[in-house]
Amino acid sequence: MKNIIFIIAALSILANCEKNQSPIDIPVDPNDTIPSVTDTPIIQLGKGYVLKNGVVWNAPFEAWFYHSDSVFQIWVEHVNSNLYGEHFFLQDIPCKKGRYPVELRRVLINHRNQIPDANFAIFQDFDQGMGMYEIDTTRTDHFLEILRYDWEEKTVEGKFQVFLRQTLTSPGPGVPDYISLTEGKFHLKIKEP
Amino acid sequence: MTEYQPTQVQMTTVESARYTSLQDTAVISHSVKIVSTADIRTSQPNDTIVFQLPGRTDTLWAEASLITDDSLEGFTWTGKILNKLGYMALFYQNGTIAGFIQVESDFYEIMPLNTTYQFLVERNNTQLKGCGNSPSSPPPAPYPIDPDCLLSNIQEYNTCPATVSVLLVITKDAKNWILNNGYGSIDAYVQIAQATVNLAFYNSDIPNKEIRIKWIERLDIDSTVLADPPNISSDASNIKTLISTDRDTIKADVAILLTYQEYSNASGATLAIGPDTDQAYAIVEVHYAISQYTLAHELGHVFGARHNWPIDAGDDDEEVCYHAKRWIQTPPNVIYDDFSEVYDVEKSWSTVVGIPVSTAGTFANLITDENGAYFAFFLTDGRILHYSNPDVYYGLAPTGRAEGYIANNALLLRNTTCTVADFFPTRELRVFVLHDLNTPCLTNTTFSAIITPPESGIAGQPPYTVSWYWNTNGHFSSNNPGEYLGQGVNISIPEYPACPVFWLKCVVTSSDGVTVSRIRRVYIGPATCCEETSEGKPLSTTDNSATNNLFPNPVNEGTINLMLENSEGAKGSFKILDIYGRTLKDGEIEINTDGSSRIDVSKLESGSYLLHLHLISGESVNYKFIIAQN
Question: Tell me: the pLDDT tens digits for B398-428?
Fold first, then answer.
């Protein structure tokens, strides 16, 4: 009888997890995340893709380890010929398969808690801030999902979606108040700084 | 300035390590020499000093612009190089001497080694951090700029007094650079960095404005907190989160994170273009704050100043008038609008808030002037210590532009510095010396000490004693305190001691013993102002404008030559006085029939002197001259 109650309880917990999309999945052993040869990458190695406010953002994706071989960061940056630059930073990403929330970046407070955080910035000539964006904390649908992590090749595949709001009281002319980064996906080799 | 070989200087292990470290930074330094600079100012206690830099063949003479002497912050002398294009600052405190000297495109930093010696570090400023860009097509016709510069409540010549408190938050690596590679003293570094901005205000005719830097260490902000690999966009976007608490605690108007990250594409960044109290944050790289005027550059953005127009080899086409300005030496034999050739621009400069162009032929910049357009490589590109101002010249070129693509940072900064200074109430004792700049020849002018008391609990509490002194050279010391004028917050000077320039010192002493001095150079007006005092009495004149009447100047062969028009055949007497007013030589003089005369000065040592001529006819005239070498 005790066994039956335990099984029912366990099934109930699992069902609840499935329904509510637990904010942090149980980490998976990295050795289990090596993709099989039959897996099809979601995008070509070295590439990323994302819609910025609904439009394809043609910006290169880079991934870097961050003072550890268990945490990495993704930078998406594009600077045009007039040195107008847009910079997206996804940081504190565990090198483990799983679906994670994306939280507000508060640097010293949470920059190493292995919960991804994100921010977005627009600079002119690299030194004049035009727009600074942080995670919209009124929303709960930000996520970053690591689909595959190759421990030996240091490659990672994943998807993401974040929504960011302007924080400057006097932003530069023409910059948006809000940035939605949707349908994001990447397949990158993580580099050592 | 005397150079010493390392073998002549007994360095401690720490000092020797600094010397080695400085030499290792070859990327940013041309050379590192060991010198003693004590004699630069103290042996020539004057508003004009004459010196040579080791490694240079020319003699430099410089005239003081701003002098501050605080019991809290030490003594700072800032000035302008007279016989070349350039500026300098020297800082003295408890035997520590630091400074910088810019001579055209050459930049030197004086870093204290110990109380006897300094390092003279020549920077490699051929290519500044960050590369500007110009568009690939000619810019459009000049914008129809709003004469009010699209800025509400702007005043054309706002003389509002402003002390902007700037907090430098020093990261772990920046501190290590200052102590191990750079100045060896954070206080010395901070005072010189502060001097660059205040001298830029002075040079740019932005009156009654200054910054005061306070600093704290944040050793927890290290390479594990900042972006790795270094990324200035990432760090700048996080800056408010990192240091806003420090700013609120210190109550600074502006907070700047001082880093040593070696960012690849910039030496600093601002959170946003101001003025806005929520956005008054910036990052500055510690090793470029002084040598490339990055602190003055980023603060310019905090005050609202913009980069240079595309027509100035920049990329900022925001339709406002407070842009920086670049001067470009037009290549010889340039053929306009023929884009088959790329020309070399040998000399150029930009004002402080300008962005550097790509040099060394990385890519060609499209240059457009009133004659047309051409493509050019810049061989060098450096900043000058000016905010753009059409009415102020550097050499023969104006540092700003009044029409078309207007470039006038000074107009903006005269207004917005006062806005920024009010972000937080002043906490420390502040003193300003003001007078009415609009009074012709400063007749009947009252000088006033504007004193802002500190918060309770901070040294410098009222009541205050305010004492006034003057002299003709700007050098005040315990042995030479100057001539006492009187006490009180306001002082009137009925008869000026020298014309057209004299120096005024205001000493404010608080009830608890804090002394703050402000020494300012007072320019009375053009030569016509020197003809009579307000009471109608003849005023001693110093005719600096008619430099052709005395030559060569500086004197270098033991004789000065005079050429006096309308005095042919006249007789009279002369005196040569040093800067203390002591007569070193006198005698009779006879003007030849062609108006010429000569005076032997071969016995006088290098320095600045005053020649006083008094002719029997009653005419009297003074000439200031310099002896460079005898």
Answer: 999 988 888 999 999 999 999 999 999 877 8
Distance CA B347, CA B363 (A): 17
Sign of dihedral through CA atoms B263, B168, B282, A93?
positive
Q: Using CA atoms, how far apart are residues B542 and B527, in angstroms rounded to an integer?
A: 8
ipTM above 0.90, yes or no: no
Sign of CA dihedral B259, B265, B266, B267: positive
Q: What is the C-alpha separation between B202 and B200, in angstroms, rounded?
A: 5
Query: B271 and A168: CB-CB below 8 Å?
Result: yes
B298-334 core/surface letters (b: 16 or more CB in 10 A; e: else): bbbbbbbbbbbbbbbbbbbbbebbbbbbbbbeebeeb
Contact A129 B133 (CB under 8 A): no
A67 near B CB under 8 A: yes
Residue labelled with tokens 């993709």: A35
Chain A residue closest to B134 (CA)? A82
Strands B348-350 and B326-328: antiparallel
> Would you list the DSSP string of B538-590?
B---B--S-GGGEESSSB-SSEEEEE-TT-TT-EEEEEEE-TTS-EEEEEEEE
Inter-chain residue contact A172 with B135, CB threshold 8 Å: no
pLDDT in tens, A151-186: 999 999 999 999 999 999 989 989 999 999 999 999
- pTM of the predicted protein model: 0.81
Say how far apart CA A174 and CA B507 lie, in whole Å: 50
Describe the crossing of helices B409-421 and B294-303 by its angle, rounded to 10 degrees.
80
d(CA B489, CA B466): 6
Rounded to 10°, the helix B186-203/B294-303 angle is 60
Count Cβ atoms below 10 Å from residue B479 Cβ, excluding itself: 7
B266 touches chain A (CB under 8 A): yes
- pLDDT tens readout for residues B152-198: 567 778 888 889 999 999 999 999 999 988 899 999 999 999 999 99
Task: Kindly give the pairing relationship between strand B74-81 and strand B342-345.
Answer: unpaired
- Chain B CB contacts of A172 below 8 Å: 272-273
Q: What DSSP character marks residue B181?
A: I
B287 neighbors B293 (Cβ within 8 angstroms): no
pLDDT per residue of chain A (193 residues) written in tens, 0 to 9: 444 444 444 444 333 333 333 344 444 444 444 445 456 888 999 999 999 999 999 999 999 999 888 999 999 999 987 788 999 999 999 999 999 999 999 888 777 889 999 999 999 999 999 999 999 999 999 999 999 999 999 999 999 999 999 999 989 989 999 999 999 999 999 999 8
Between CA B119 and CA B99 the distance in angstroms is 10
